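Reopening this one. Same input as before:
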Amino acid sequence: MTRLTTVLAGACATALVAVMTVVLGSPAVAATLVEVTAFGSNPGNMRMHVYVPDSHPSSPAIVVAMHGCGGSGPGFHQSSEFASLADRYGFIVIYPTATQSAGFGNCFDTWSDAAKRRGGGSDPVSLLSMIDHVERTYQGDPDRVYATGSSSGGMMTQHMLAVHPDVFKAGASFMGVPFDCFAGASDYPPGSSRCTGGSMDRTPQQWGDAVRQVYPEFSGTRPRMQLWHGTSDTLVPYSLLRESTDQWTDVFGLSQTPTGTDTPQANWNRSRYADRSGTVQVEAYSIQGAGHALPQGGMALYAIQFFGLTTSQNDTTPPTTPGTPVASGVTATSATLTWTASTDQGGSGLAGYTVYREQGTTDPQLGQSTTTSITLTGLSAGTQYQVYVRARDGAGNLSGSSAPVTFTTTSTGGDTTPPTAPAGLTASGTTATGTSLTWTASTDDTGVTGYDILRAPGASGGTFTQAGTSATTSFTDTGLTANTTYRYQVRARDAAGNVSPVSGTVQITTQGGTTGGCSATAAVQSQWGNGYVIQPLTVTNTGTATITSWTVTFTLPAGHTLTGSWNGTVTTSGRTVTVKSVGHNGTLAPGASTTSFGFQASRPGGDTALPSGYTCA
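Same output, byte for byte:
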């Protein structure tokens, strides 16, 4: 069904493998690819091809799709699915052809000083000219411009979103590298490059600062980023996916711990990083067992979905009407609403719900939610609210209005009496990672609405912080550390927001578990006459309890020297190397593994020995 085509080849001092990209077959398209020869300023001496589908809206979105080194715009048009998706969803595709070399042929310039400055020249200026041409000639939407690409094109995707965040709304980088990974043209060829040679390791803030320093006065919305990489990539190391993720999560001010993970298809492991509103700003895909051969079948569609371009052009069918909302937890300033979900038949998908107030006001909208519940805050005390819900789909169609619910917030001058303190707090069923708490119900003049569970570390000292809430008189706390002491207290809340005194304290110590079990297995990613790269060094928790850190030791053969490492704290003593986990890869649940650490070493010419004696503790 698919065949492989070489998109990058070259010779370096170290052995290089041919870079391959999957050809998915010529898309069944009605329109034709057209070359544009006079599109504007072109300091990069690039060629431009454009694909305009026969059917598109009056102001279509623009996708810039960029090939790998050694490729071309027409070649990427044939070897990827973006043109067939353009026919389906009505966006225009620009296929640039790069002419820079840096030791290869037809590579996008992500290394020169000119390319790293706004308006500095080289390929970025040529690409902006192409976008401007499509906006002028085809009325392309300047607020819906996206970048994507494979290998060198994936590198350029991250580059353009860093240098020109005011132009692009989102990007999808396949097998790319972080912005400012290459120090200059001499640093570019994979294998001899510090960037792609396996030794690049910066902190998230260092990566983020590199982006922020390009356009320090930028105050707009940063373009969202989707990242793809194969775990067996031997040309652009898989470890660079972690570096790219670090860069873009830091740019958005997000944690490097994902807010969600899933497997949308077999062997596709996706990590998502959302902001406080729930919007996914960064997405990272680890494609298990894949080499330097992306995008594969179906991946372009996921990129276009990430861009938000999969809404049907003809969807005019609204979602069904939501069920009547039910109000609960009403206080003087807040209330929680729940309702039955709507369905959408128009093809664009259910996007969420909007909550409205029926009373005549200048701003009747109270809030929005992507789920079938919402907690309204900032309400006025002692006020009657009549509220209804409408669903919306991806095309902007609104459903009918649900039947309304009426509730009245409590008066601030009313109930000021807190509930009684919960009594009889006990713990049972304590394991290495959790414990179950029960207590006797509190009483209140208007009714208890819930309980706050407080937890403190150790047998004494430490601060009690909220570990969870419960609407009943029991709670199970999970995710605890083995062989560790904790103290618990509980307090009650009523509908007016009054809080009871805390209960008595109960102390528990989690079981020891089998915490000494972890293993380390090394894989050779690439090697040459006088060096090699070990990636990944897989650390697996073989115990029955979660571990929060690990230490791996191994022995280098005589004459070998460690020249670089990533995602671990490394110390050497003679030929013994000790690696300690870092923040993002130290915690492993029972049976879980991390493949983020790797290293590069040099050795005497002709020596084929490799490190040995890997142990984990």
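So the earlier flakiness isn't reproducible anymore. For the record, Helices lie at 73-79, 82-89, 122-138, 152-163, 204-212, 239-251, 299-307.
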